[in-house]
Amino acid sequence: MKIAYLINQYPKISHSFIRREILALEALGLSVTRFSIRSCKEPLIDAADQEELAKTNIILDVGIIGLLVSLIKIAVTRPNRWLNALRLTFKLGWNSERGLLLHFAYLAEACVLVSRFSQLNISHFHAHFGTNSAMVVLLNHVLGGPAYSFTVHGPKEFEKVEAIGLPKKIDCASFVVGISSYGRSQLYRWCNYNEWNKIKVIHCGLDESFFSHAQQPIPEELRLVCVGRLCEQKGQLLLVEAASKLVSLGYKFKLVLVGDGELRAPIEEAIKSDKLEGDDSDDYYQFSLDKTAGVSVAWSSSESITVELLDSNKTLIKSLSGTNIYDDDVLFDNLKAGTYYLHLLTGNNTVSNYDVELFVGPTDNVDNASQTPKDLGDLTATSVTQSDYIYTYSGFSDSDTYSFTLTEASVVDFTWTDGVGDNTNIYLGSGFGTFEDLLPYYNGDYEETVSYQRTLGAGTYEFTIDYKYISNAPASYNLTLTASEAPDAGNSLGEAQDLGLFSYSITSPLTIPIFKEFSEVVGGDDSDDYFKFTLDNTVGVSASWSSSETITVEILDSNGTFIKSLSSNHNDVLFENLNAGTYYLHLLTGNNTVSAYDLVLQVGPTDNVDNASQTPKDLGDLTTTPFNQSDYVHGNRIQDHDIYSLTLTEETVVDFTWTDGVGDDTRFQLWSISPVFATFNYFYNWEDEETVSYQETLGPGTYRFEMWGSGPVYAPASYDLTLTATPTGNTNDSPTDITLSNTTIDENEPINTEIGTLTTTDTDAEETFTYSLVAGEGDTDNSLFTIDGNVLRSNAIFDFEAQETYSIRVETTDSANNTYSEAFIINIEDINESIATLDIDDNGALEPQDYNLINLYSSQLDESEFYFLINNFSNDLIGKNSTRTDASSIFSYLNEVGEILLDIDGNNKV
C-alpha cells in the first residue's frame, strides 16, 4: 500500500513526532510519500530533518503560475468534480475567518495534488492538523483523489470548529485521529453519533531507542526542564511564576525552558521582572579524542554567546562569538588525541537559549570551516598543489575556499583527483564573471581526475571545492593549479587566436560536450576579436556569452565569409550545425564602446530542431500521416531542449511515442497555446526504460511540446520521436446564427432591465455557448448594454424622445472556441408620460373631475405591508389593489365619472 502525508510545513523542528510516525509506518513495510504545502522558514539543525527535506515534495514550489495551471487543467479534465469542489470551497470559505481567497488557494493546491497522486499511485492521504492541510486533502478527495484521514491535535481546532469546517472534514474522512481521549470526546461533539466509530486515539510517542540512553545522575539542585512551543496552550508563564515563588522561599531551583513561540517575549519579560535571569552564567561540556581529528562546533542562539575551545587544563585554544542563526561561521580546529572542553557564556547577565552541535571528522588543512579563503598568492607556471577533505553533514558544510592572484591575463588550469566513489565540485567565485552561477565543474562518482581551463584577466579570484552529497562520508581530493600566458584574441583573421581542434564524436555512448571559456575585452582601440577553431566532423556549435555592453558575435567560414550572427549582452545562444573544417568567431561592439565579456564555445551533437534559440519547430497541421524526428537533447552549459508546435483542426487522439538511448534519461512536456486551457504533466523516460508512449485527446487548436535531456553533468541523450494522430470523428462546427427573443425596451426603465434572451444555432448537439459584446459592424452602442449569461440587459435609462433605436454587435463562442457574431437593432418604446392631476379639497376629498385612468403611487419608507383602497363618498369600496411589501406600488383603476375617496390602509384619508 502506498500512502501520502500532507502537512502545512514539513519537516520542521517542532514536527519530529510526525517524522517518527512516518518512519514507523515505513518500518512496517508501507511506502510513504511526503507532501508539504510550504517549506519551513526555520533552519533545519537535525540531520534526520535534513534527510526528510530531501524526500519531501513542496506543493508551493510550483509557483503561482503552476497553481493556476493545475487549477485550469483539473477544471477542463474533471469539470463535474471541479465544480463540486468549487461549491464546497465557497461554502466553507464563506464562513471561514481566513476568507474565500485562501480557500481558493487550497483548491489550487488540491489540484496540484490530483496531478501528483495518479503518477505516484497513492491510495490514501493522511493530513496532520485539522486546519488548512485537512482542507486540501478534503478538496483533493472531492476532485477524485484517494480517501483521506487526518489527525486533530487541538485546542485550536476545537476553538474554531465551524470556521475551519471541521464537521464536513470529519464527515468525508475515512477516519479521524485524536491524540488523546479528551481530543476524541471533543471530536464526538462535532459529528453524528453513527460516525463515532471512525474517531480513533493515537498518542504522540517516542521511539524505543529514546529510552535506551544511559540515565543521567539526578542533580542535587532542583531542576525542571520543559520542552515545547512557547504559547498560551502550554502555559510556561505559570512555571515562571512557580519558579519565582520557590526562589522567594529560599529554594535553589533551576527552570529550563526549551523552545520558541509567540509567548517568548512575555516569558522573557516575566523572567526579568522576577529577577530570575543570569544565575546560569557558564555551561561546560567535556569530550575526548583518541586520535588527531578536525573538531567543529556550530550553534544558533537567541542572544550572542561566546564559545571557547579549551584544552585539558582549561587553557583557551580558540573562541568565536555570535548568534550564528543565519551565519555559516563555525569554530574549528585540528586537535590531537586528548581531553578538551567547550565553554559557553554570554559574558553578562543576558539569558540566551542555544542549540549546539559538535562534529568530529577528518582534519582540515585549509581551515575553511570558518569560510576564510586560503590565499595561494600569485599564480604562475609553477604548480600549486593542495590535498584535503571536504564534507557536508548534519548542518556542517566544510567546503574549501581558495583565492589567487594573476598579474597578467593567463590560462588557469584546475586539475583535481578525488577518492573512489567521491563526487566533488569546483565553483568559481568572485571575479569570474557571470558564468560562475551557471556551472560548477563536477568530478562525478565514475571519474577520478578532472581538468578545467579558464582564460582570465589580471586580478584576484576565488574558487571553492565542495562536496555534492549530504550526510555521506567526507571526500578526499588532490588539487593542482597552474597559470600560463593567455594568447590575445587577434584583431584580424590572420591574427586570430587559435583554439585548436575540437574532436567530438556522435557515436554511442555520447560524451559531455566540449567547452572552451575565456574572458576578454573588445571595443575602443581593440575593435575586433577573432578566434579560430577546427572541427574534424559534423557537429553542433554553440556560442553563449555575457558582456557589460551589447556585442555582436559572428560565425565565419574558413574564408571569412559570414554564416550567422547574433547581438546581445547575455543568455542568448548563437547555434549552427557545422561540417568538418576551419571556422572563426568574430566579436565586435560596432562602435567605440568598450565591453568586457565572458564567452563559452560548446561543441556537441548536431541539433536537427535548432532549439538552442528556443524557437519551436512548427509541424503544421497534424494529420493521420505519422511524424518522425530524431535528435539530441542535453542540459549542459548551453541547454538544448527541443521545442515543437503542432495544429489540430478537429478533435484528435495524439500518440506521442519516443525511444531514447541506453542509459539516457529524457522527459516530455505538453501544453496548449490556443486555446489556452491545459498544461499537461511531465512524462519521463527513465534510464531503465527504452520506449514511452503517451496518448492525449485534444480539441482543435495549437499545441506545444518539448523534449528535455538529463541534468547539467550528463552526456547528451538521443531520442527517436513518433507522433500519430487519429481523429475521433467528434468534429465541432462553428455556430451559424444568433437570435434575440425580444428587441424592444420601454423608455424610462431602470438600468439592468432584461431585454431578451440570446439563443445560438449550432449543428453540434449539447453544445454550450458564451456571449459577449464585440467590436465590428453595428457595435455603435455596445457600451449602453450588458450581457449576463445569455440575457441582454440595459446599461442606461433610455429616452424615446432623445433616440428611438440603438445598434449592438453580439458574438457567441462554443466550447471549441468557434465563434459567430451578428448586429442587432434595439427599439425604444414610447410611453404615455401624462399624469392626471388630482385636486384635493381641505377635507381630503377629490374635487369633481372626469378621469379615465387613475394611477396611484405610494412610497413606503419601511418594509411593512400596505395597499390602496378606492371608495366613493358613500364609503362603498369600488377598488382595491393586492397587498404589497415592496417599496412602491402602482394601482390603475378605470373609473366612471364620479367622486372617489382615497384611503391608505383604511386609516389615513387623503
From TrEMBL:
Q: Which domain of life is it from?
A: Bacteria
Q: Name one GO biological process term.
A: homophilic cell adhesion via plasma membrane adhesion molecules
**Which Pfam family would be a valid example here?**
Glycos_transf_1
Q: A GO molecular function for this record?
A: calcium ion binding
- Look up the record and report any one GO term of the cellular component aspect: membrane
PROSITE patterns per UniProt: CADHERIN_2 (PS50268), EF_HAND_1 (PS00018)
Under the heading SUPFAM superfamilies, the entry gives: Cadherin-like, UDP-Glycosyltransferase/glycogen phosphorylase
Report domain Cadherin positions.
737-850
PANTHER family in the cross-refs: SULFOQUINOVOSYL TRANSFERASE SQD2 (PTHR45947), TEICHURONIC ACID BIOSYNTHESIS GLYCOSYLTRANSFERASE TUAC-RELATED (PTHR45947:SF15)
What is the name attached to this protein's record?
A: Cadherin
Q: Which organism is it from?
A: Crocosphaera watsonii WH 8501
